[in-house]
Amino acid sequence: MPTPLTPDPAIPDRWSPTEFGSLVAATSFDVPAASIAAYARWWQLESWLRLLAYLELRAHYGAEWLTRVDRRAENRAAREAERAYMGSADAQSPLAYLDAGKLFELIRDDWALFAPSLLPRTTWDGKVEELLHIRHRLGHCRRPHLDDLGRIEQTLRDIESGARVALDAYSSSELSAEATGELITGWCGRAHADARRLVHHAEHQYGIVFELRHSVRPWVDRSVLRVAAGEEVPGALWEARFHLTGAHYEVDARRFSGHGAVKALLDQTVFVVIESPWSLAITFPAVDSPAAVADAIGALFDALIDATTLPHQRSWKPDAEWPPDTSGLDLRFQVGTALSVYDASMGDVSLFGVSRTR
Fold first, then answer.
1. I need a labelling partner for 195 at 20 to 30 A (CA). Which of 85, 253, 295, 300 fits?
2. Is 56 within 8 Å of 95 (Cβ atoms)?
3. Is the previous residue joined to 323 through a cis bond, with omega within 30 degrees of 0?
4. d(C-alpha 297, C-alpha 261), whole Å
5. Burial of 37: CB neighbours in 10 Å, binned 0-12, 13-18, 19+
6. What integer is the mean pLDDT of 257-268?
7. Do the beta carbons of residue 73 and residue 81 sit within 8 Å?
8. Per-residue pLDDT band at 130 (split at 50, 70, 90)
9. Cα 341 from chain centroid?
10. Closest CA to 248 of 275, 203, 278, 276
11. What DSSP designation does 355 have?
12. What one-character-per-residue DSSP string does 29-73 give?
């Protein structure tokens, strides 16, 4: 990809000169800037809803989550896999192949999972009809209505507080001191063979500190939640967290994602969140088998050790901005995204970059 010898201050840091040049050229030759702006905002909205749908379905249904998704989405993904030479980074995400109308239907059919993160049901239903009209216009390259961009941005403002609820629940992980159960005994009590082999060795040899936590989705009735007792509970997530405390070792996102064990076990995970070069957290649905989760943690622990890098192997420099370029990674790897950077202390900073109306 060609780059200028001296950076152009007019080009945003996240865009390549080629991308920026194409955008300028397109808008100079009959492509309405309003269409590009509306599409960009729609992309934000729909991408967030797809990610939210994946998170809530995985948390509730575990390994069976795809039974809730229209089979045509999987069929489309399978057909695209036959054209690997032109595959998308979203190729491993069945929800990426789900029509927008079907996505809204999926949310409607499992509304209880989404109610805390969206709008009141009647308000949301009315907004969906309006949004799909805009989506059809954009999808068929019809010029947008003068209010389309404003309508999409207002929707993003409207769901901002709900998005924070969803992200807060994901990031609020802990583990009760009284917790018991197979997974806790295996990894916190070192009863699992991999825990006995890895936890002490990794901390002293590589400075990798392991921690087991769990979080709870906002739609769960906490009065009946007993994940701390090790039960397989819909709506809770186990989190295997790794802290690289040593002075030399760092997580290499691409090396880790390409590891054979990671590829083989990725379907068991919900997300692999790489928050920094020294912090990685892998989540699993608590509704799935604790024994399978315990084994997966061991295999992924080994893969992480293999994927740590020394200073002379770094793919990014310490003085460079985080995150490094992770384009093309499976969507389950979250690097530099809302899941990896969100913190409740962000205050009034907009998750979607949409300024509030006065």
1. 253
2. no
3. yes
4. 11
5. middle
6. 94
7. no
8. very high
9. 11
10. 278
11. P
12. TT--HHHHHHHHHHHHHHHHHHHHHHHHHHHHHGGGGGGGS-HHH
Is pLDDT at 228 greater than 50 in this prediction? no
Geometric angle at alpha carbon 238, from 69 and 71, rounded to 5°: 10
Other beta carbons within 10 angstroms of residue 285's beta carbon come to 26
Q: Which helix (H) or strand (E) holds 301?
A: helix 290-307
Average pLDDT, the chain: 85
Q: What is the C-alpha to C-alpha distance for residues 327 and 88, in angstroms, rounded to an integer?
A: 10
Question: Per the structure block, which two tokens stand in for 355?
Answer: 């300024």
Q: What is the DSSP letter of 87?
A: -
Residue 89 has pLDDT above 90, yes or no: no
Nearest to 179 by CA among 221, 219, 233: 233
**Cα(341)–Cα(335) distance, integer angstroms:** 8
Helix axes 193-206, 290-307, angle to 10 degrees: 30
pTM, two decimals, is 0.89
Other CB atoms closer than 10 Å to residue 30's CB: what's the count?
Answer: 6
Distance CA 90, CA 74 (A): 12
Residues 6+ apart with CB under 8 A from 161: none
How far apart CA 158 and CA 117 sit, in angstroms, is 10
Which pLDDT value is given to residue 289? Answer: 92
Residue with the bigger pLDDT between 344 and 190: it is: 190
CB atoms within 10 A of CB 347: 6
Count of beta carbons in the 10 Å neighbourhood of residue 251:
21
Q: Residue 104 — very low, low, confident or very high, per pLDDT cuts 50/70/90? A: very high
Long-range contacts of 45-52 (CB under 8 A, 24+ apart): 45/131, 45/152, 45/155, 45/156, 46/100, 46/103, 46/135, 48/159, 48/163, 48/338, 48/352, 49/103, 49/107, 50/93, 50/95, 50/96, 50/98, 50/103, 51/331, 51/339, 52/114, 52/117, 52/163, 52/166
